[in-house]
Automatic annotation (TrEMBL):
Protein's UniProt keywords contain Metal-binding: no
The protein, known as: RecA
Keywords attached to this entry: ATP-binding, DNA recombination, DNA-binding, Nucleotide-binding
Keyword ATP-binding in record: yes
Pfam families for this protein: RecA_C, RecA_N
Any one GO biological process: DNA recombination
Domain RecA family profile: 1-31
Length: 91
């Protein structure tokens, strides 16, 4: 969790949450999962995650591993997240 107190680019006192992975930096796949859940693209029920009618894993780490290994699924979910973000900005 990060809290920005002062900067020259954005409003102050905003908070953000993201994963920082050793040797990798900020986890893009983790962001895809979080935004997918926020926009309703990935459904979360307890510890289970599902995409459409397919259960994609139990626990966030297993979903991250699946998306890391399945490039087609990762690109599909990422494209839908981007579309949802653009639609939300226009609304």
């Amino acid at each position: 969790r990060v809290k920005v107190v002062k900067n020259k680019v954005a409003p102050p006192f905003k908070k953000a949450e993201f994963d920082i992975m050793f040797g990798e930096g900020i986890s893009k796949i983790g962001e895809i999962i979080d935004l997918g859940v926020d926009y309703g693209i990935i459904k979360k029920s307890g510890s289970w995650f599902s995409y459409g009618d397919r259960k994609i894993g139990q626990g966030r780490d297993s979903v991250k591993e699946l998306l890391k290994n399945d490039e087609a699924l990762r690109n599909e979910v990422e494209a839908k997240v981007r579309e949802a973000m653009i639609a939300a900005r226009k609304a």
